[in-house]
Amino acid sequence: MTTTELLGKVAAQYLKDHLSDEESAGTARYLLDCLTAEQTSAVARAVLADPVINRLVEIKLPHTFLRDQGLPPEILTTDRTTYFRNAECPKSAWLLANVGDDEQQSVTELVPIGAPQLLDHQEIWVNVASQQLPLTDDHLKWWRQALKGLVEARQVSLERFSEYVASTRSAILDHGHPIRAALGYALPALRIPRDTCFFNSLNDKTSGYGSKWKILFATAFAKRACYLVKQTPTQALLDSELLRESFNKVKDSVPLQCHLTVEKFIESHSGWNNEALALSECEWEMVRPIFDGLKREKFNLGSLPTMTAII
Amino acid sequence: MNYLLSRLPPLEIVDSSMWIDEAIWGHMLYDEQTPWLIYLEFLNVFLDQRRKGQAFKEAQGLNKLKYWAAWRLELRNILFNNPKLPEIQKSFSDDSVRWREWHKSMSRAGGIDQPDFSYLEKHFHGFDDFADVVELLRGTGIEATTNKRWTSKYAFPYGTNCVFEDLDHNARTNDRHFFRRTGELLYLMFCRSTRKEDLLKLLESQMFLKGGTWNKIASLLQPAEQEPKGAERANAFLPYLSHPTYDEVAKDWIALLELGMPGYDVLPHLVNMAAFHLVQYQLRISRDVAEVTTPFKIVCEVVAPKKTLIREISCDLYQENNLLSSRAITAYIDAVEKSNEWQAALSQENAFARCKAILASRVQWGEDYAGASTPDVLLQTLRSDAKRRHQQNMAHIHRSYGREIGLVSKRGTIKLRYAPTDDLLKSLLFANVPKRMELHQFLECLWNRYALIFGDNEAEAVLSKDEFDKKAFQANARRLEQRLASLGLLKRLSDGCAYVINPYARRDT
Asked: Measured between beta carbons, which residues in chain B are less than 8 angstroms from residue A105?
């Protein structure tokens, strides 16, 4: 399942849940609110593929916005979204789109489906992403709580959030990781170094609390993600010279298979780039010594022989 | 980027240990010279050249600027080296005693061989008037409340009688501690701008040059005639004959001056825009030298009550931009290494001596080099020396000026990011909105001219899809709208259109 497919299915599921709530209340009007063209078309495809929602929802999306997305012509329209505010609907609900243009103020009364709504419903993401995965109810709960913790720890874009969920699913399906390990394995999707064991500090009980996950995500963002863009947690620059010096000191502690990746990372420019991505896909414990080597060695004045003699 | 191909030759007499930062950005951008001090230094140059009838003309040739800056030692001693004044005013009631005591206290005035302040008694009705004037002028001074030495404190530039340069602690020679040529660079930028004539006309008509009441009052604290002291200032260097920033900064100053703001209200905006353009100048040249091809962008957060996606993006971009100047240094040295001249020297006999000669001629470095005699080590040493030197001052321009003018801030977080203050927003608005402008047009204008991003339209065009969130940027633009409205600079009319308004717009525009 690709990132965009996942997002489309989640939005379709969100719509389905709301439709079943409001089926008897007349014509409903839903608005795909400021999603990108790819995301909007993925939602449309997911709705068309689901016979239940498709039966209930009439889709009318702006032709100019989506003409290159390969969608069936009958769901595209040249009419403006405002036209459908009071147009008669052949089905239970309209599914329209707001592309953030001059019509935006005129469609505020429609029910929005956008990034804030989708990010607020972690259970839908987990339900959709866990299909065909061998997960227990507890594992599903932990996953939901983890996503809740993530959203509270840091604002991430819908695209990146979706990529993280899809990577987690892939880690379970393709690599056979249990849920906590899969969430650590998928961290590069959030631009954090991969650490499969990162969430193992949570036990079966604490994994059920979003606040515990939030602390761990916040720690990972603050104390690890910065190194991938060659910065310390206090925003100080790590230049190539410093990193090389540190790498030379700890070379023996870094597994040989990571050496080339590390070398390329050191030579690359600062900021997020392919070299940073490659490094993020190395296990943190393997590359951590490079960044630990940057810390100043603790120095105990009392242990100095000359100082002791003076005292 | 064509301007890079015609970099001007270095100065004949170089007073620096290498010529890399200077070759890229000029001699020099200095982080400890605050925006107000840049403006004061600019005024020093401008007033001297104007007196000689050659304002904004490089009459002696490119990068041959020479000028005299005033010292105004009497005024400075009275304002900033005069601690006994309040005590004398309180201790004695009779004016003649007060004057006598005060003259006694000023007998060792800094930098003046034979202090004579007797002219003051003719200029003021009484000692109280004199003390009040001193108190007022001192209160409005620049850097007046800091603990800097008295020779590094300045009067507010009310007019030509209030402008003087930085001096050493004895007031015997001029000093480069705070007037480090950044103001001279600004002057040279105007000299090479295509709009210098328009700017000159407008500057001539300004109160701070014509001389208002406060300028006259400041003149009363000084003797009628003052001899020029110190040496002639020279060695300013701006490396490019033309650059878009030269015209952009002139355009903004012209727009601000044309508004005809009352009194000295325009000065803070001129100062802000000058420093803002110097930041832009450094970043844009760094990108061109380092051959960065991604679009230049400055995502600005309009501060929100809690963390937003914009804040994260803005923090990341701030860091990315902050490293650009270091990348430019690396790229500049890489270019020397890749040059045909260097490569040919490597394959010849006595490669080390040839390479050393190349570095001596191109970056004016290597005279004191005492490392291994191989070209690789030589170049490696240059790299680390250049980076170390760059980190001392030039690398901090973006952060230092950014914070001074209110572009960069830590408000609400522990990280620096772009979060413009009300003052900077006002300066930007006054410089770009002649009368009124639709909000989206204003945002587009800020993007086109300065690469500033507030709204979703501009962000969508340049951010990657995994960073971009339309709703978050729309909310950011909405917060900007609310902030401008609260400042009285925006109105949303009944047709739903939000208009940015310039309250200083002239009626005839």
From this structure: 496
